[in-house]
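task queued by scheduler; priority normal; single chain, no ligands, no partner chains; default sampling; output format set to structure tokens
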Amino acid sequence: MTASAGGHAGEAERGPHSRFRPSLELVEAKLHPPWARPGIVPRTELVDRLVAAQPRLICVVAPPGYGKTTLLAQWAQRNQRRVAWVSVDHHDNDPAVLLAYLAAALDRIEPIDPDVLQPQPRPGVIAATVVPRLAAEVSAMAEPVWLVLDHVELLSNQECLDAVAELAVRLPEGSCLALASRSRPPLPMRSRGGRTLEVGVAELAMGTGQARRLLEGAEVELPDADVDELVGRTEGWPVGLYLAALALRAGGPQASAGSRFTGQDRFLADYLRSELLDRLSPELVRFLTRTSVLDHMSGPLCDAVLAGSGSGRLLASLEGSNLLLVALDRHQEWYRYHQLFRELLLAELDRREPGLVPQLHDRAATWYEANGLPETAIYHAQAAGDPDRVARLVRELAQPAYAAGRFSTVRSWLAWFEDQGLVPRYPPVAAQGAWLHALAGQPADAERWADAAERSSFAGTLPDGSTTESWVALLRALLCRDGVERMRADAQTAVAGLDPGSPWRATAILLEGIGYLLDGQADRADPILARAAEVAAEAGAMPAASAALAERSIVAMDRDEWDKADDLAEQALGTLRAGRLDNYVMGPLVYAVAARTAIHRGDLGVAREQLALAAPLRPLLTYAMPHRAVQTLLELGRAHLALDDDAGARTVLSQARDILRRRPDLGILPRQAEELRSRADTSHDKPAGVSSLTTAELRLLPLLPTHLTFAEIGQQLYVSRHTVKTQAISVYRKLGVSSRSQAVQRLQELGLSA
């Protein structure tokens, strides 16, 4: 960990045999308990209780300042080699980010499978897909582990909370999940096995003996009677005792120390100001309040934010003085304020120098961007009110973040522009919003963002040399709302206006080729698709490369060039896997093409495997990208018919028909759909099986193995409990089972569940 890296993970922090490589930069300090400074009061009795109980789930719940983190850190010290620690912050409200930290923490105990975090761009499925794999990794470890999540109250994303709950019920015997939170987490508080231990305010409040040790650690000595009185006035609130000690040490009147607040008292800020800050030098108070805008602090970062020097020495001095500053590493390079202290300092900063706050955030954004941490720069640029910087960074980061499965993160960046009423000012951001929602199978949101991009009056050249018109034209081509001919023209406009080095150029060429293919001009389409594959490979644009290869395979099949089609399908599959794109919207087309070529060469088992891979992704095929969706569904229909699976063919063709009702102008696809429906309708009826699962039923599948009740599943899917139950019964029938547990087992056998 280096100062320039902002406390982020490096090779030295991983185990010697680790193959785990997260797709995002991790803040290394979040993966360790706070560094214990001298004078911390040992909570021996509580730690002994936690160890003796051997619970499966520990919940430490109390308001700020009760020593929740300290207790769990001391508990963790009892078995240092087997503790995985994650300190949650507001950046973790994305299940992909949270689980990346959990996986990284576990990897420091024993190396885990690097594929455990295979990207999941579909909203709502991570708890059901990644968490079981993570729990399986823990089960395979040589010894049990203790996993700590600190500051759980900062998790507001329901998917994150569901993931934590799922982990709680899936951890193997002997392992333990410990949660620290200001409020009771909305999680199932009874883990599998029933051994749950809750620790609250009553247990964390300090008695006279512990209060005396705390005061002595702060270099304050008081008679026994005064300690008793102080404990009574603060109700044993540890941070209240500590603030009183600091006030006494700074020369405050002994009689008033701790007399005006308890853990729930709203006058704490006034106490901090009158008894502590007012007794410090103005220079030190300015340092404390101005640096409170930072989640983590280092000397160089604070120097940049304060436009000064010497911050590193001052931070070390403050940590040594026990001024509610926590060292995050043994090298004393990175620090943070105690959470409650920081909140009070931020309030004081807003009271004293409200006009300075945006400037401080702006300097922080500049430092983070210059030091290779652009995502943290986005947060500070937002706080600084600098939409130009935010827009530039989001344009650069949104697509890679989405590709890594971090859809919640991208959605939060986009939501900021909506909340600020800024979408019309930034058409490339609006285009990205529409694009990414289309990829995620959310057509209504894609339409809303596309309309915003179309309404924008902004024109000009973007930093990469591309024109704004080219971005909007590329979006129109992708959404294909006005037919194939307009799609092709828009794609050509995008090709002409995008900078030659733009990573989106390959996609524009691909869409032009698809436009010709769907217009029945395969001979014109194929060389364009070949060029798209080449440009995409050179640019590292794996999604466009895999899609272009799959489209060329379709052309070869239509020409009866099956050897060429087979080779192109294999290339498309290899590209898909190399880019870890198995669960993305281009996956079903590649799987369908691979299934068709496998059927032609007689590998029916392989064909069925490819169709099984495509099935869970069918909910991503919507009218948001009608050309891709309908073309894919028709290829799936052809494969099902070739396998004599009439029910499966009718199901995918019904989905295609629903899309064609909204987007009928798709060239040759409507006619092909009618021909395939006629074949399917004249085939012999067979019992409906797993291939006939509807998109609604497929959305339900990932949630069946979770701890969620039907009512809770309904809340996630925005349907009633009755609807969920009806869909579940239909799923059971198609799987040939009669209960939820049997369905989960059958799904695992079919490879449709983790």
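post-processing summary
- The chain has four domains: 11-204, 208-279, 455-686, 696-750.
- Residues 522-539 form the longest helix (18 residues).
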